Inverse folding.
């Protein structure tokens, strides 16, 4: 009978965790039950509000707010999901919106203001395009994972309203969303992107800032982290090993049914570097997280400017330790 600790991990079914899912990589000292059959918004709520999982991939924005309010949750600097966000700003094509400045005074829909994707988009809109967020009327579809502070202004939509439908029908001028919205996927001519060439905009953003936006962190219930102080390091090592296995596998161009997959892989390396998905509190990740904290604080979602070291459990094994074993 196993003497390992039995824990649950809820996360997306990503290539970067496949080695954990199939047992190729294990967390030393842990028997993991891994749960992947839920969407991100549901997983975040069930982890933060219902405390259903010991470990979970969780919204970075919601995690910041939870820590700001001293909720019993901690995290390690493993970022299973990142995404550039310029391509997720959608507009109604009949409203005369052709550039970011045209969003001043408009009605914009979101799933929630605390969605990490929305936090990034709002921050980018204000910092890099000069659009004041308080000039916009915001409408949210869902309740936030962590309750907003009283001075954050947003209108809640009733259950029978969808921001995607409202955009297509002209009730909203724009929608900022974590996913590609259904009207756009369906080719509805009433809906388009704010940045038609979003890839070029995102590449320019990266060249200017060095930021490949972090969306999610890996959360751990505080009581679990306290009970097993070795867990943070062992989990960090296992997730790094799983990612390394994934990257080695994905180097094979036959693995993905895309004609120019290898060209896309090489382009990513040329623009973003050899490991844009790096874990840990590296210099790049610190800048990324500090920007996210700044946006969250500036938008009134958190009251304190938490530092990366405040936010994450220590996974340092000591200088020149944790690598190759020598006898």
């Amino acid at each position: 009978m196993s003497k390992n600790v039995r824990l649950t991990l809820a996360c997306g079914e990503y290539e970067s965790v496949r080695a954990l899912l199939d047992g190729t990589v294990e967390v030393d000292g842990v028997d993991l039950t891994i749960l992947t059959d839920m969407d991100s918004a549901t997983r975040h709520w069930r982890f933060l509000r219902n405390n259903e999982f010991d470990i979970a991939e969780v919204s970075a924005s919601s995690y910041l707010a939870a820590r700001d309010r001293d909720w019993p949750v901690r995290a390690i600097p493993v970022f299973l999901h990142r995404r550039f966000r310029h391509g997720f700003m959608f507009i109604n094509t009949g409203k005369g919106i052709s550039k970011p400045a045209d969003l001043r005074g408009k009605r914009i829909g979101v799933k929630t203001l605390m969605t990490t994707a929305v936090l990034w988009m709002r921050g980018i809109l204000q910092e890099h395009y000069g659009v004041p967020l308080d000039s916009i009327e915001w409408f949210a579809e869902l309740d936030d994972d962590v309750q907003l502070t009283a001075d954050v202004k947003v209108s809640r939509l009733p259950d029978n309203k969808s921001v995607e439908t409202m955009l297509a029908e002209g009730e909203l001028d724009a929608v900022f969303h974590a996913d590609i919205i259904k009207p756009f996927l369906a080719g509805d001519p009433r809906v388009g992107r704010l940045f038609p060439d979003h890839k070029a905009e995102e590449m320019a953003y990266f060249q200017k800032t060095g930021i490949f936006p972090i969306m999610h962190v890996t959360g751990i219930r505080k009581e679990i982290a306290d009970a097993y102080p070795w867990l943070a390091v062992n989990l960090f090592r296992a997730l790094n090993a799983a990612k390394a296995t994934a990257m080695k596998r994905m180097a094979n161009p036959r693995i993905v049914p895309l004609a120019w997959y290898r060209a896309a892989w090489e382009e990513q390396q040329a623009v973003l570097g050899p490991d844009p998905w790096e874990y840990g509190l590296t210099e790049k990740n610190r800048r990324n997280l500090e920007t996210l904290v700044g946006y969250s604080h500036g938008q009134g979602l958190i009251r304190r400017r938490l530092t990366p070291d405040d936010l994450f459990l220590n996974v340092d094994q000591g200088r020149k330790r944790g690598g190759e074993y020598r006898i």
